[in-house]
Specification:
- The chain has one domain.
- The protein has ten helices and seven strands.
- With about 200 residues, the protein is of the alpha+beta class.
- Strands 1-2-3 form a three-stranded antiparallel β-sheet. It has a two-stranded antiparallel ribbon with strand order 4-5. Strands 6-7 form a two-stranded antiparallel ribbon.
- About 20% of the residues are buried.
Length: about 200
């Protein structure tokens, strides 16, 4: 997703009851004013729940200190500053390097847009370029109404491990991540044909 999309997401736009977590960008938030679905990984879901606590409404990343103001989104400038600080704490040097790009002065700087580049490079080999662009919001608007939510879930689950980056800090966290989808029948077991079906539809 793009940084402006993320900053405009509200808790109400997220469905935590399924796996992977579903996110639907409202029409005014996504590029070219078109709504679209995407998904969050188990890892992202875990940390997002930590951030939200018991909150059920408002902007996910609100304005003000510690995102206490939930009625308006965080500014892009503040988000980039937080992103920069987070990058400093990434232990994997290779990932830190991938998160940088050249600025106008030919300096390597951290920029959140590079997360999209990493997502494309990691997810593409797992699920194919076309489906990866689907999740990145790079396809025509009509593409997003051609597939059922279950088909989209299955495609994302197939490549989700490739976009799991951070080290889980404890066995307790690992168990909680594992149990996120415990009450949901796994798509890979019951809907194994959906991934191929989605791929066939996209490539036809």
């Amino acid at each position: 997703m793009r940084i402006d999309e993320l900053l405009n997401v509200k808790v109400e736009d997220i469905d935590f009851s399924v796996r992977p977590t579903r996110v639907n960008f409202p029409n005014l938030n996504a590029k070219r004013n078109k709504g679209r679905p995407t998904r969050f990984s188990d890892e992202a879901t875990y940390y997002l729940k930590q951030h939200l606590g018991e909150r059920k409404h408002g902007y996910v990343f609100g304005a003000g200190d510690n995102s206490r103001s939930i009625n308006e989104p965080m500014s892009e400038g503040n988000a980039i500053l937080i992103f920069y600080t987070a990058c400093q704490n990434v232990k994997d040097e290779k990932i830190r390097t991938e998160l940088t790009r050249l600025d106008t002065n030919e300096r390597h700087v951290y920029h959140p847009h590079m997360l999209r580049a990493i997502f494309r490079s990691k997810m593409g080999p797992e699920i194919g370029e076309h489906r990866t662009l689907f999740f990145m919001g790079r396809l025509k608007a009509a593409e997003y109404s051609k597939h059922t939510p279950e088909e989209i879930d299955a495609a994302y689950l197939k490549g989700m491990s490739a976009v799991t980056f951070l080290q889980v800090e404890s066995l307790k966290q690992a168990e909680e991540i594992k149990n996120l989808g415990q009450t949901i029948t796994t798509v890979s077991t019951v809907q194994g044909g959906k991934v191929d079906e989605l791929e066939a539809k996209k490539e036809s």
